[in-house]
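REQUEST FORM: STRUCTURE PREDICTION
Request ID: SP-0412
Submitted by: Lab K.M.
Chain count: 1
Length (residues): 616
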Amino acid sequence: MKATSVVHSHPWNEVQLPLAVWEEWAAEWYQTFSPQEENHHPLDVIEQDGIKFNFVRLRTGEEEWIIERPEYPAIWRYIKEAMARLVSQRGIGGLVIWGQPGIGKRLFLFYALALAIHEQRPAVWCDSEERIILFPVGRAPYALEGQTGWPADAVVFVDSTAHLVQPPAKFLRHGIRNFIVQATSPNERRYKGWAKEKWANLWPMDLWSFEELRALMHLLRTKSTPPLGSNVVTLAADGVPPRVYSAERLFELLGPSVRAIIDNLDIVDTGNPAADLASHFASGSLFARVADHVLALTSSDVNTAAQMSGFHTFFFAVPPPFEGTSKAGGYQNPLHKYIIPTKFLAGILMDTVQTHELQEQYSFALQFSPAPQVARALYEAAFIRMMKQSEQPLQLEFSDPTFNTILSPPLLLHDLPLAPHSEMAINVLYVPPRGFPSFDAYLLIQSPDDDDGLLAIMLQATIARKHDVPKTGIDIFLDALDARPDANKIVPVFVFVVPLTNIGTDVSRPFWNNGIGAKRGLGKYERINIRTGYAVMELPKTLSYRLETCFREFSEFPFVKTSGGDDLVVPGAVDVETNTDTDAISKAARQRSSDDDDDDEHTSKRQHQEGHWQEA
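STATUS: Completed
RESULT:
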């Protein structure tokens, strides 16, 4: 009997199909990274601004790069070692690259494919049930359809999508020994079955840092890369056009989701992020199924349609940080923390329940208390409405008790479509657009120690024990004050609104001696120090006991700042209470928010920022 299965398993005996238009990137990838091409030298590595790039030097002197995130080499090393063990019958049959949807898991597959090509390892690219792309050693890639035709020692890269939930059955049949690398979301249905059958391990992938995103945007603007988002992205080499959201700004608003950032790069920036980015958010209220979300947040079990509908737009899975060793573990759900990474996202989430009674909002936060990072974000986003409806006065505490002030209810609430302006009324709580930097709300009141003076109070909700304050929003606010005829009678202050006294003292203490440095005055600026304090907003008794435990946990969780000042949790971040050696994101935040000693440059910068937020 003819052994047709053996004959058909040889790649040269299968019908080779030409690459389709959408597959042409594969030919370019091969031409760039194959050592068989005469124009290429061995793969090399360079480092720019702390980010590593693998690249090949072309004969023309140009360079083609691929980004290398810190954990990529370790993952590739693990794959090669596991494949070597597989040959000796002792290996693990695959690896699941597990992580938040949209964080760029496909980028690792492109990285690994480039190295496989360069190291002359046969590889298969699979993002379809029926059709694959084969990269044979020493030959240009081509497409295959059918159940056979690829080498038995090929590494199979599977990019799971809505159309390809898990690796095709042809790679899972008994006797097939190809090593499978699948990039997939936390939905267990996508990987658990095959991973158990093939004894595959799972590698939870890190979220992106701010500097890594900047490196990726550089590649997109200057190099030819495979498709990364749902749309083809064309970027100007010198940066994005004016009044269009930059990738860095989208990172501050939408969090470390590469897909969300790329898919929204063509959005015009009117100064109102909530309105500009409305199409990014799923319709309907996510709070319609709070129990499902709490289950997902506490068990990482994200399987139902209700959970998946917009769930990962707001909630981000945070794996343990990569510390230079393998993170590969069993195929079981890794049970990671979930967070809401930016205050803008938390605010949008709270907007979805604005028609609910306040007690219902407390109930939502109470249900989320098993996931304290999420409960924290909801508290910070809801504090303005809590202030409006509270019947208790708010005591503003400063390091010098003689400056303590009381805000007495009721307070009128006014939502601003754009940035702060000079026409402010007394005792009105103004709320700038979601995503406005530096603070959450502001108001003018009569000065308690000067009958003719006014106090301009900036309010920032937080339950973190350390909180950087970017200068961008403060600059805009001070310009609005200076445009008033009574500007010389107004004294600005900054107040952190917190749930507990000890959090208030901890977060405000760094500013007690010198306040928040700023510059004030139209035309000729002078340096000022803005007095900084805190105010404790009492929580309902039904909520305070449960959340107090959560607040203690927040002090243990590693928070860092994005360049916009919003709290963002990322792998590798330092503990804010015990370590002052911040990472690249934190350094970028300090650099971008620091005072400029050159008054002319500072004037130009403030004028640009004011136009950015005030032009409709």
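NOTES: The CA atoms of residues 440 and 460 lie 5 Å apart.
Reviewed by: T.R.
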